[in-house]
User: What shape does this take?
Amino acid sequence: MNIIFSLLILFLVMTSTTAQNFLETQKNYPRVKIAYKDKLSTVETLLMSAQLNISDLSLYLRIFKKEKTLEVWAKAKKDTVYRHLTSYPLCATSGQLGPKRMQGDEQMPEGIYKIVHFNAFSNFFLSMKIDYPNASDLKLSATKNPGGDIFIHGNCVAIGCFPIGDEAIKELYILAIEATAQNTLPIPVHIFPCKMTDQNTEELLKLYPQHEAFWKSLQPIYQYFDAQKKLPLVRINSKGYYEIAK
Assistant: This one.
């Protein structure tokens, strides 16, 4: 028992050290320094308005393509219920409603993702990479090359990515690296074609009936969070569609 306890303590110390190194490294990059100088007070005010603290923070991002909106939800690490912190408009889009299925289609992905990389030297000021293609995308891709390099970023250029402008990315980048340094799991990013109420979904399906199976697998995830403000445990089934794990 003492050995297990000692190993647990060692793991926690190593994890804490790695997280602190990540944050300090990010803060030393020139553009991240600019972001903190310009936007730290704004970020702290946002968090204060939601009764949250930058040193105790978990994030969840929700993107709606039709509404051209990126929502930021946050909570204290020990909590399960998220609070809406702020929203940023997508200042450019590409493609049509519907998932990304191949390299070069200029589609913006739809699905259940997470932040896997932070780029402080982006061509678009600052950027955060999502893990497209995931297992669902690989299963449902129209070709063997579904594409990649999908980012949330600054500037207002979109070829499959999600631009929110330089001022907004400064705020979001600060929130994201602070939260990443405090949590063992990456920030979840859920991307939907629209706010998937029954009415909205049925209206979209009249225009894009080819996406019915995929969108019907995404809709319960949207509705679960919208009702409970908690993240469901999501899995990908053998056909490549999303399911809420029971």
Notes: The beta strands are 58-64, 69-75, 83-89, 111-122, 125-130, 151-153, 162-163, 188-192, 234-236, 242-244. Residues 2-27 form the longest helix (26 residues). Confidence is low (pLDDT under 50) at residues 4-15.
